[in-house]
């Protein structure tokens, strides 16, 4: 299935199902409880683990799987104490693992997205680099992604509209379709305090074909979805988290079972979301529930 085919679903009242977490799922399966993002290290040590996670999300019903490129930009690698010069090779490796998982699953209709994660050390909006810095880093990653069979780019966990815009511009420059996903505050704004109206107008103007909310607790997503739904000139979506990073570990929300998560997602769909998936602490079982239990809003 081509990207433009899947983007016709929302107009027909159908949902697009994203996959769930990679980082926390890697930690869950490897028995590592630390907060530090070890997705890159684990990919180097156990590439089959990454491939298996992708395949499990495909089996769960994901229409879109996201390659493990989130932390493969030069800035994130440096912050994790890894060699920034490995960005190109790691990005290519992650893309190939996702593409191979699709092929092995005989799921040619599944879309493979290249992930552009934040450059900052955390999700503090004040820590986000300039637009020019973000654009340069994202251009480097997108160039590598474009040399693979990637279908689209997903800019993720943006704490400022400018960083999301940089990822969108980098994707558009090489002719790849792109979605932009931002962090939300509990107050119905982007985490930076910028309005969703400003975010939508800026990102759609730059070339984004969807605007989403991610890496935010479900209740806060619902608050922001009410604001985002006022700007229906773009396809909207959400993929929330069921855990909070605290100190050197994670606090997992005990109420965020697959069933409970699906109830939140149904609320988002009622508010206009047409793309739903999972972020931190969600698993293939969460995605299976989204696929089977969440009904399109007519």
Q: How would you describe the overall organization of this protein?
A:
- The structure is a single chain.
- This protein has 298 residues and is α/β, with parallel strands linked by helices.
- The protein has a single domain (3-290), classed as Alpha-Beta Barrel (TIM Barrel).
- Helix content is 44%, strand content 16%.
- It has twelve helices and ten strands.
- The protein has helices at 3-6, 23-30, 39-45, 47-60, 74-79, 87-104, 131-146, 161-173, 196-206, 218-228, 258-270, 284-293; strands at 16-17, 64-66, 111-116, 152-158, 178-182, 210-214, 235-240, 243-246, 249-252, 273-278.
- The protein has an eight-stranded parallel sheet with strand order 1-10-7-6-5-4-3-2. The protein has a two-stranded antiparallel ribbon with strand order 8-9.
- Strand 6 (210-214), helix 10 (218-228) and strand 7 (235-240) form a beta-alpha-beta unit.
- Helix 4 packs across helix 6, helix 8 runs parallel beside helix 9 (196-206) and helix 11 (258-270) packs across helix 12 (284-293).
- It starts with a helix and ends in a 5-residue tail after the last helix.
- The mean pLDDT is 93.
Question: What structural class results from the helix and strand content?
Answer: alpha/beta
CATH superfamily: Homocysteine-binding-like domain
In DSSP terms, counting alpha (H) and pi (I) runs of 4 or more, how many helices? 12
**Residue runs with pLDDT of under 50 for 5 or more positions:** none
Give the proportion of residues in helices. 40-55%
Q: What multimeric state do the chains show?
A: single chain
CATH-derived topology: TIM Barrel
At CATH level 2, the architecture is Alpha-Beta Barrel
How far is it from the N-terminal to the C-terminal residue, by CA?
24 Å
Q: Would you tell me the overall average pLDDT? A: 93
Going across the major beta sheet, what is the strand order?
1-10-7-6-5-4-3-2
The biggest beta sheet reads: 8 strands, parallel
Report the portion of residues in β strands: 15-25%
Q: What is the overall shape?
A: globular
Report the strand count.
Answer: 10
């Amino acid at each position: 299935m081509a990207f433009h085919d899947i983007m016709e679903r929302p107009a027909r009242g159908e949902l697009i199902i994203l996959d769930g977490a990679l980082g926390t799922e890697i930690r869950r399966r490897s028995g590592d409880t630390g907060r530090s993002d070890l997705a890159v290290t684990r990919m180097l040590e156990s590439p089959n683990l990454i491939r298996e996670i992708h395949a499990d999300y495909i089996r769960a019903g994901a229409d879109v799987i996201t390659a493990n490129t989130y932390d493969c930009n030069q800035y994130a690698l440096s912050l994790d104490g890894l060699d920034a010069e490995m960005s190109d090779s790691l990005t290519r490796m992650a893309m190939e693992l996702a593409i191979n998982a699709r092929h092995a699953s005989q799921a040619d209709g599944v879309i493979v997205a290249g992930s552009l994660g934040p450059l900052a050390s955390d999700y503090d909006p004040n820590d986000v680099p300039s637009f020019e810095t973000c654009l340069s880093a994202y251009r480097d990653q997108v160039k590598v992604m474009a040399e693979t069979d990637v279908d689209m780019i997903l800019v993720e966990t943006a704490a400022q509209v400018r960083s999301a815009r940089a990822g969108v511009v980098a994707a558009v420059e090489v002719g790849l379709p792109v979605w932009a996903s931002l962090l939300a505050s509990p107050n119905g704004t982007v985490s930076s305090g910028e309005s969703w109206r400003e975010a939508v107008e800026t990102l759609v103007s730059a070339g984004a074909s969807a605007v989403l909310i991610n890496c935010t607790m479900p209740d806060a997503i619902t608050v922001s979805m009410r604001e985002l739904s006022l700007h229906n000139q773009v396809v909207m979506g959400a993929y929330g988290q069921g855990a909070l990073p605290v100190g050197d570990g994670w606090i997992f929300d005990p109420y965020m079972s697959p069933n409970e998560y699906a109830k939140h997602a149904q609320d988002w769909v009622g508010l206009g979301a047409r793309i739903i998936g999972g972020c931190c602490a969600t698993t293939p079982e969460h995605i299976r529930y989204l696929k089977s239990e969440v009904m399109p809003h007519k």
